[in-house]
Design brief:
Blueprint lengths: L1 H4 L16 H16 L1 H13 L7 H24 L4 H28 L4 H24 L1 H8 L19 H32 L2
Length: 204
């Protein structure tokens, strides 16, 4: 825990302005492409659920699965944003991505029992399923030495410890991601869950 008390003390990690090398370009894609891109299909999927009256069909059960999937994606994202990328964090990311994919299959199975899942919604799901995998792959490319260590069983010191980044991401960036998650993921899906609970109580 001592390491986390001063987790913001290191020099912030920022892609070098104007740099066009592979590492900086990849960092920009991950930070300003893949992560914010998650918000668009998340809101679009929520709109499709609302349009097809989820509260009157699959209701609380499907909405709870959505909350589970958000947790499965959110925990490794949080770790990737604030923790040092090592075999432990890479394992968390890979495992969570696999579990998220399995839960996505369960979600569609439940949804198609009583609710119309239109082709547009199915296409939206494809983005939601592939983005966690893309984040894992890009993170692995940026931290190939940790991937190599993981492949050899994680024998390096601190390989299996949850440690803060040596160079934390900019505070404004983290605040922006947090605000985006709150506005475009947590808020709409909380509204959906509450709507489903109310509908069940009213017997809709």
């Amino acid at each position: 825990m001592k390491d986390w008390r001063n987790w913001r003390r290191g020099r912030e990690l920022r892609p070098a302005p104007g740099a066009d090398d592979v590492e900086n370009a990849t960092q920009r894609v991950l930070m300003y492409g893949v992560l914010p891109m998650w918000f668009v299909p998340a809101v679009a999927d929520w709109m499709m659920h609302r349009r097809t009256d989820i509260e009157k069909t699959t209701g609380v059960k499907e909405s709870a699965i959505h909350a589970l999937m958000m947790a499965e994606a959110g925990v490794p994202v949080l770790a990737g944003l604030v923790a040092r990328i090592n075999p432990l964090v890479l394992s968390m990311m890979g495992g969570a991505a696999a579990v998220h994919s399995a839960t996505a299959i369960w979600d569609v199975t439940v949804a198609t029992e009583d609710r119309e899942v239109r082709p547009v919604e199915q296409h939206i799901h494809s983005f939601l399923e592939v983005l966690p995998l893309a984040a894992v792959v890009i993170t692995s490319c940026l931290h190939w030495e940790s991937v190599r260590d993981l492949a050899h069983g994680g024998k390096q010191p601190d390989a299996w410890k949850l440690l803060p980044k040596e160079r934390p991401l900019p505070g404004k960036y983290l605040a922006g991601i947090a605000a985006g998650v709150g506005a475009f993921v947590a808020l709409p899906y909380a509204e959906e869950f509450i709507r489903c609970v109310r509908a069940r109580k009213s017997g809709a």
